[in-house]
Amino acid sequence: MKKADVKVGERYSAKVSDKVVVVRIDAENPHGGWDATNEATGKKVRVKSAQRLRGAVHKSRPLALAIPSQAGAPAADGKGPDAKADKAAKVAAMRKEVAEKLAKPDPELDAAVKAADAKGRQKKAKVAKPKGERKGGALDAAVQVLKTASGGPLGCKEMVERMLAKGLWKTNGRTPQATLHAAIIREVAAKGKDARFHKTGRGQFELSAAARQ
Fold it and tell me: Which of 24, 36, 93, 190 is deepest in the core (most CB within 10 A)?
């Protein structure tokens, strides 16, 4: 409302303490606004500005009709008791609907879950394919080649050629002889006299005494 529309002695619906009530304007306040009386409680209130007044209330209009929010009906801003109850009921209905859907069996979803579980088990059961050189296999293959060698010690390149020709070892490495040489050196350093290989010269190896037994 506008200030010019407010008259002393008239009744208006006004927002007081976050509630819409009917007030009677008693007089203008020297500090601005008006002094009024809350007709529902009889208490004196101050209306600081015309914006707090919602509209004039006819003298013959019952108090309950003038203030619908106090009669149990939803307030104009949609925050009355009934509005809150309606919202709570809607939320409860939605939750019930979701719970019922979750409780119902879903054959398609169950089948998809079972298929995914079966696929996961199959992947775990599969033996990992060898990538590159299998260094443990290379040493075992080298031992077999040296056991059948009749010309004495062999170099790593010659051992690899025989291993690959006989199908004792498979590799995708670019320098398989270097891989085999490094693996033999590591075993000799780690196992000492219990190693299966004995170095006879530069890049030359034969079976150790322990491996021949």
Answer: 36
